[in-house]
């Protein structure tokens, strides 16, 4: 381990690994420290939807950020494969937001105004997915939304960063960050390093370090449980989505049924009740789902902030401490744009002002109550 890095990134989930990748691509000397193994915490529980449309009303700032991140994957899938040899499981096909009632359809009004979204009636949905529930009245077909496999994407970011010169340290916990002259001393369980910049990409797990560096904000976990299944017979072509539950087909033949939303639960176990809810939900969208075989179950903690938007930017008083946490339900989708934005902060490049304002770490103070 060297004694000094230009940038130390704390956390090796998808956000930290994307940041390391974009920095290494710009030839910045970067060291990333992960207390566990790369991509094994919240990132490993994600379904991997790149649902820019399905998670937003299409009008807010987060939508333009999400859309730019989603589009970045178009090039990244090849770029990362060429460098790392890891296939990130990029899959097109779109998302069908199913409608079972008039109220469901009403909720899709603004989504249906988007140019890349079209309304399909019952028969059209059935043509696309022959096994769909007879209770479905129609669907908003989001043509542009796609998916990736989160663990492979995270590992691919990390390996590509390594190939471009980044140092990646696993099983290495950062327990303290102190000021040392113009630099920071980053204290890890395997020794200390100095850095000009420190980036907190600690997911939901950074509250202790936040306090140490004088940040008042806290990340709150929203636990999500999911079922990973496989089936030989009927291959789903499109992601199905209804009321925050979904079935996502993957390029490896498996499907993810997700996900529960349990606030303020720091545990990572999967409950029988959670599995029951997911099975019922999957059956209501696709009755034949009951024939599928369980591969494994998974739970993860979505890192949520007070307003649901991530923190991406500098510490209010310490410009060279940066934060990239709180990506809640969309960290896989937002990883490329976040990595690029943190890189632009460090290199002093021009940035989209709306994004900078919307994701500022101290935005709560400037909110009108
Ligand atoms: C069930 C479920 C489904 C989801 N589905 C989707 C989806 O379809 N699409 C989507 O875009 N998003 C989805 N998400 C959200 C997405 O998983 C998260 O937003 C994303 O993984 C957050 O990434 P992260 O890197 O911030 O956090 P993490 O993956 O948790 O990574 C943070 C890392 O920091 C490390 N760390 C923390 N503190 C320290 C320290 N002091 N020293 C060293 N290392 C440290 C941790 O060990 C951890 O590995 C889903 C989440 C869940 C739970």
From TrEMBL:
EC nos: 1.4.3.19
UniProt entry tagged with the keyword Membrane: yes
Pfam family, one: DAO
GO BP terms, alphabetized: thiamine biosynthetic process
Residue ranges of the TM segments: 7-24
Reactions catalysed according to its record: glycine + O2 + H2O = glyoxylate + H2O2 + NH4(+)
Domain FAD dependent oxidoreductase: 7-344
Alphabetical UniProt keywords: Membrane, Oxidoreductase, Thiamine biosynthesis, Transmembrane, Transmembrane helix
Gene3D superfamilies listed in its UniProt record: D-Amino Acid Oxidase, subunit A, domain 2 (3.30.9.10), FAD/NAD(P)-binding domain (3.50.50.60)
InterPro entries given in the database record: FAD-dep_OxRdtase (IPR006076), FAD/NAD-bd_sf (IPR036188), Gly_oxidase_ThiO (IPR012727)
One GO CC annotation: cytoplasm
Pathway assigned to this chain's UniProt record: Cofactor biosynthesis; thiamine diphosphate biosynthesis
GO molecular function terms listed in the Swiss-Prot or TrEMBL record: flavin adenine dinucleotide binding; glycine oxidase activity
Organism domain of life: Bacteria
Keyword Membrane included in the entry's annotation: yes
NCBIfam families: thiamin_ThiO
Protein name, entry field: glycine oxidase
Species per Swiss-Prot/TrEMBL record: Oceanobacillus polygoni
Taxonomic lineage of the native organism: Bacteria, Bacillati, Bacillota, Bacilli, Bacillales
């Amino acid at each position: 381990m060297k004694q000094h890095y230009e940038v130390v990134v704390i956390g090796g989930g998808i956000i930290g690994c994307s940041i390391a990748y974009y920095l290494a691509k710009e030839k910045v000397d970067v060291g990333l420290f992960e207390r566990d193994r790369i991509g094994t915490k919240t990132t490993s529980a994600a379904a991997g939807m790149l649902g820019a449309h399905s998670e937003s009303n299409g009008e807010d700032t987060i939508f333009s950020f999400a859309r730019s991140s989603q589009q970045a994957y178009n090039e990244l899938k090849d770029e990362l494969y060429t460098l790392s040899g890891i296939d990130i499981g990029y899959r097109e096909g779109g998302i069908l937001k199913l409608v079972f009632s008039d109220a469901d359809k009403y909720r899709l009004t603004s989504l249906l105004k988007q140019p890349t979204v079209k309304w399909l009636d019952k028969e059209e949905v059935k043509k696309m997915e022959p096994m769909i529930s007879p209770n479905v009245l129609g669907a908003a077909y989001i043509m542009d939304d796609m998916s990736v496999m989160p663990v492979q994407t995270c590992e691919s970011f990390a390996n590509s960063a390594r190939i471009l010169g980044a140092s990646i340290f696993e099983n290495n916990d950062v327990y303290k960050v102190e000021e040392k002259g113009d630099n920071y001393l980053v204290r890890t369980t395997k020794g200390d390093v100095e850095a000009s910049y420190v980036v907190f990409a600690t997911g939901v797990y950074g509250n202790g370090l936040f306090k140490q560096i004088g940040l008042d904000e806290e990340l709150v976990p929203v636990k999500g449980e999911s079922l990973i299944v496989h089936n030989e017979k009927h291959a789903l072509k499109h992601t199905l989505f209804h009321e925050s539950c979904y079935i996502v087909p993957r390029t490896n033949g498996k499907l993810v049924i997700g996900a529960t939303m349990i606030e303020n639960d720091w545990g990572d176990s999967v409950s029988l009740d959670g599995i029951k809810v997911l099975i019922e939900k999957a059956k209501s969208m696709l009755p034949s789902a009951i024939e599928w075989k369980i591969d494994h179950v998974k739970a993860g903690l979505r890192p949520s902030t007070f307003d649901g938007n991530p923190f991406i930017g500098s510490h209010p008083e310490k410009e060279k401490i940066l934060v990239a946490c709180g990506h809640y339900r969309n960290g896989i989708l937002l990883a490329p744009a976040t990595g690029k934005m943190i890189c632009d902060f460090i290199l002093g490049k021009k940035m989209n002002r709306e994004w900078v304002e919307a994701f500022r770490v101290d935005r709560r103070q400037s909110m009108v109550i």
